[in-house]
């Protein structure tokens, strides 16, 4: 009986010696766990060598001479406990019977009905295609990860056909650096239409997709109404304004709510950003535009989008762009009035790729806390919690000449969002000018007193900083000094009210005088109308008398003639 026939493994499963089909004690234990349905074995990684990529804790099965792939595939196929499988570097040397080994492994693997996540990394061309075919019956599959497998157009066509069958209801598709071109993207697009709303994450990073491929993908994504993350980073969109515009239109037309859109290092220029910006900023929470060749006009588009009331961005990555002081000024303007953005990641791979000097950081300082007036301080940005990417806990203030007030206000926004506006006002305005509030007269007095009461916790707040001074007080003043500020402000308000009331009384007197004149004119008009009515009535009475007299004369003439 051919030992690549599945029936062979079925017939000999009870008697096979694990020592005869494994190369090591560790591999034997994994084979045994698979055979016995061990509840603790829910994911394994297998391969021949090289670098292994672990996303979760799992058992490592290193394939060596003496490990029977046919039996391994059989045990995996029978498992009802296994949830995840990672296959790394399974490109076997071409020895006699190696294709039969792969065939037997894939035949067994194809029968599994429990694995929900499959990850394939750097397989050979033959193994990569064979694996895709083996997955065709896996209706339970939720996550497909293919990395560095050189899919190319043929592999994409194979995968597109599997997707198009409608058997898969994948939640995640991740195809990293798989040599996917416009042709390959078009082949995948046909299958994407069949997945529908089950797809949550679609990632094609570090491929060679351009404008035509992007257009094809966007058309297919229209059926993926449940999509939450889209990663197209590392592709070539330098001449893809049409494709980026189509992406923006799709986001707006279908009212998408993406949690993350990654377009890092895609060669997107100002024209492309112009086409993309409205949809991306209004329908994404996390947008990565890092390492794209954006210039001033592109940054202006981004800044204007941030100021829009429709902006939904919470996290914006624009590191490795070298925006400089001019770019800093443009972006800082976009922060004023923005109420959604929490993280603006300016830092790239190196500390010096921002190119912002102290002058540029001072513009961000004004956006975070405009001290020109109390009202402008209140209207400053209190949402930004990070302006640079922190790589570790001692890296918060890397040496790029950041304005100290920027660091302070960013930390204040992050650590005390409930009190941040009050703290900034108290920190930067020793005297609170109450005159703008006098227009509400004494009706505003309880609110003014209440504001100071609600600001009392600012006295006890501290900001966490780096060593050696891990903590600092927000307000460096005593409680007595705070109470004195409150009483002084309230006193000035109360003192200013009588003057305001007097001015108001003079205004009311003038209005009353005009009202009296208008009333008299109205009375005169009514008297004139009354007299006209009387005259018209008298005129009508006289007409009646004249008419009666004429009738009497006519009757007398008739009598005389007779």
Features:
single chain; 18 helices; 562 residues; alpha/beta; 9% strand
- The helix content is 40-55%
The parts where pLDDT drops under 50 for at least 5 residues are: 50-56, 390-394
Counting H and I runs of at least 4 residues, what is the number of helices? Answer: 18
Overall form = elongated
Biggest sheet, spatial arrangement of strands: 2-1-3-4-5-6-7-8-9-10-11-12
Q: Beta-strand level of the residues, as a percent range?
A: 5-15%
Structural Rg: 40 Å
Strand segment count: 14
Give the biggest sheet: 12 strands, parallel
Give the helix/strand class. Answer: alpha/beta
Mean pLDDT across the residues is 85
How would you explain this protein's 3D organization?
- The chain is an alpha/beta fold.
- Helix 17 packs antiparallel against helix 18 (479-561).
- The relative contact order is 0.04.
- The chain has 18 helices and 14 strands.
- It has helices spanning 6-12, 25-36, 69-78, 98-109, 125-134, 152-164, 182-195, 211-221, 241-253, 270-282, 296-307, 324-335, 358-368, 374-378, 404-415, 420-428, 445-454, 479-561; strands spanning 43-47, 59-62, 84-88, 117-121, 143-147, 172-176, 201-203, 229-231, 260-262, 286-288, 315-317, 343-345, 462-464, 471-473.
Task: Write a brief structural summary.
The protein is 48% helix and 9% strand.
List the helices and strands and how they pair.
Layout lengths: L5 H7 L12 H12 L6 E5 L11 E4 L6 H10 L5 E5 L9 H12 L7 E5 L3 H10 L8 E5 L4 H13 L7 E5 L5 H14 L5 E3 L7 H11 L7 E3 L9 H13 L6 E3 L7 H13 L3 E3 L7 H12 L7 E3 L6 H12 L7 E3 L12 H11 L5 H5 L25 H12 L4 H9 L16 H10 L7 E3 L6 E3 L5 H83 L1
Parallel strand pairs: 1-2, 1-3, 3-4, 4-5, 5-6, 6-7, 7-8, 8-9, 9-10, 10-11, 11-12
Antiparallel strand pairs: 13-14
Helix pairs in contact: 3-4, 4-5, 5-6, 6-7, 7-8, 8-9, 9-10, 10-11, 11-12, 12-13, 13-15, 17-18
